[in-house]
Amino acid sequence: MSYHSVQHIKLTDLANQFGTPLYVYDANKIIEKIAILRDSFKNVHLKIKYACKANTNLAILKLMRKHGVEIDVVSPEELHLALKAGYAGEQITFTPSGVAFEEIALAAEAGARINLDNLDVLEKFGQKYGNTKGALIRIKPHVFGGGNEKIMTAHPESKFGISIHQKAEILAIVEKYNMKIIGLHQHTGSDVKNADAFTQAASAILDLAFSFKDLEIIDLGGGFKVAYKDGDIITDMQEVGEVLSNAFLDFSQKYGRELQLWFEPGKFLVSEAGTFLTTANTVKHDPIKTFVCVNSGLNHLGRPMMYGSYHDIFNASNEDESVQEEYRVVGYICETDTFSWSVDGKQGERRMNQVRAGDIIAMKNAGAYCYSMASQYNSRVRPAEVLVLDGQAHLIRQRETLEDILRNTIDIDL
Ligand SMILES: *Cc1c(COP(=O)(O)O)cnc(C)c1O
Questions:
Q1: What whole-number distance in Å separates Cα of residue 17 and Cα of residue 96?
Q2: Is 334 a catalytic residue?
Q3: 392 within some domain
Q4: 409 confidence band (pLDDT: 50, 70, 90)
C-alpha cells in the first residue's frame, strides 16, 4: 500500500486529480531527511544549506526554511528565488562556477555569503571589498569521490575551486587586500558513498584552515548518496557524522575557536521525496522486447539518459503481483529515450506487475535533478508538481501550456 501512495493518498488518485505527467513530493520525507542529517551531526554547530539546484520549487524552498534549513544557490536567478522564499541575504550562500564577477558582486550586495572559486574573482573581490565583506574560498582538494565522472567535482582535473596546491597564491591575494576569509569550502561531487572521500577532503581543508585567522565556517559541500534501489550502498550518515564531527571538534580545539560546520546537500534532502507519475500510452509487444511507452520522456526526467541512472519503476495501477512481465520503459522523445536503465548503466528491462494501456507508471527518486532539469524539448510542456503536506495534496506548479512554449517567441513576417 505504502509503495502505491504518498501519506495515504493513492498515486492513482493524484494522477486522476492532477493529470500526468506529474511530479509528486512527500514533505514528510524531506523533514525526515533533515532530521537524520541533524542527528548525525548533533555534536557540532551544524548549518544545513540546501543546494537548491536539485529542486527549486518555491514551496520546497519554503518548506526548507520553515524547518531551519538555509540555502545554497548557483545563479542570480536561484538567489532571487531564495529571497522570494523568505530567506535573508546572510542565510544564502552563492557557490557559482566560473561566472562573471558582476554576478558575484550582485549576490554580495544582496548580503549573500560567497564561495570564491578562482584566483581571478578572489582578486576582484579583494579589490572591491577589501576587508569590508567576508567571503569563503572554494578549494579543490584533489580527492576522488562521486557516482560517475560527470558528477565528480574535487578530483585533480575538476574545473571547480582553487587547487589546494595554489595555497601560496591564495594567501598572497588575501594578504594584499587584507581580506576577511570567513570560511573554506569544498564539494567532492554527487553520490559519494564512502566516508573516506569525505574525510580525505575534510582533512585537506582542515590542514589548510590553519593558514587563515578569521575563519568562522568550514563548508564540506554535499554529495551524500541516497538509495535508488534495494540493496544500494548509501552514505552511512551516522558513520560520516561521527568521523567528521570528531575531526572537526579536534580541529576547532586546535584552531582555538568553535567554528560552524556547513553542508550543502541537494539530493540527500529531496531525491527520495519525489515520485514521477506517467501514463502508459501503449504496451508494444515487439518480437524482441515488450515496450511500455509512457506520456513523458527525457525532456521531463533526463537523468537516465544523461547519466544512465537507475530509477525504480512500478505500475501504480496494478497491485496484483501474480502476473508480471519484463518491460523496457521508454519515453516519447525521438531519441532512444529509455527510462529503465539497468544496474550496470545500460538500457534494460524491469519486471513489473502486468501493464495495460492507461496504467499509471511511477518512477521513484524523482525529487532531485528531475523537474529542475526538465526542458521543452520536442516542444512538449513541462509537467505539474504537487506537494503532499500534512495529508493534503497541494498543486505547487501548474502544467505548462502552449502559451508557455510561445512566450518569448517573436513572430516576424517572412
Ligand atoms: C550541486 C551541489 C551540491 C549538491 O550536491 P548533491 O549531490 O545534490 O548533494 C552541493 N554543493 C555544490 C557547490 C553543488 O554545486
A1: 39
A2: yes
A3: yes
A4: very high
